[in-house]
Amino acid sequence: MTEDLFFLIDKPVLLLCVLFVGGVIGIGIERLVEGQKRAARRAYWAGRNAAKRSRGGQNDYARTAKFLLAGKSNSKTSLDASDQLRIVMAASFKARALLNRPEANVFKTLDAAVIGRNPAWQVMAQVSLGEFLSSEDGEAYFAVNSKRVDFALMDERCRVRHAIEYQGTGHHLEGGAAAARDAVKKEALRKAGIGYHEVVAGHTTPAELKRLVERLVPPAVPPEPTTPTKAVPAPCGPVVQV
């Protein structure tokens, strides 16, 4: 290596040629990478504009899901924070209910039953599995991170002990996709030692839901009674409390 370096130093013209070729290769690689990034951004904006134009009776959620899936298939380049901020600033947002009406009815019944059974426990709604599950396998964690459970029963130590899924009337219409998602969630929860239970629309009654809570949630432990103080006479002097 040293002999080659001395050889190039002795021949400055050859050294300049080597440096020039290296610079050209570096510039070419940089332009190639930048071109790929530009193509990814163009594909992203094309998908976004197409999503805006395709009304076709789709609701907001369906259009958003379609756009996200298209973006993932067109490019593996993730948007940085500045790109996300630009997109958010150009869009409009509105608040919406966290639960639909049937889910809200289940939540109210479930919440009242849990509080009545053990006030230290709480019911959480629409919780992502990634918030209360962890895995050393990054790919496995990514597979469950964004999946949600409808209701999570959390104990007094803020640990999720049970997950409850509400199967609405349209759940079975999704076919194999819904079954596959449920299977992924069930397996991840099973390995974490968290119970999985289903509430089926039109079949599970409020009384059955209350019995389920009584089976899953331990009763509150009553506080230990305090020993009342007793007045005893002292050998000499005033009465003392013990």
Structural commentary:
Keywords: Membrane, Transmembrane, Transmembrane helix. This is DUF2726 domain-containing protein. The protein is an alpha+beta fold. It folds into two domains: 2-90, no CATH class; 101-216. It contains eight helices and six strands, in the order H-H-H-H-H-E-H-E-E-H-E-H-E-E. Strand 2 (148-154) and strand 3 (160-167) form a beta hairpin. The model is unreliable at 54-66 and 72-76 (pLDDT under 50). The strands form two sheets. It has a four-stranded mixed sheet, with helices on both faces. The chain has a two-stranded antiparallel ribbon with strand order 5-6.
TL;DR of this structure?
With 242 residues, the chain is an alpha+beta fold. It has helices at residues 2-10, 12-53, 60-74, 81-90, 101-117, 138-145, 176-191, 206-216, and strands at residues 122-128, 148-154, 160-167, 195-200, 231-232, 240-241. The strands form two sheets. A four-stranded mixed sheet has the order 1-2-3-4, with helices on both faces. It has a two-stranded antiparallel sheet with strand order 5-6.
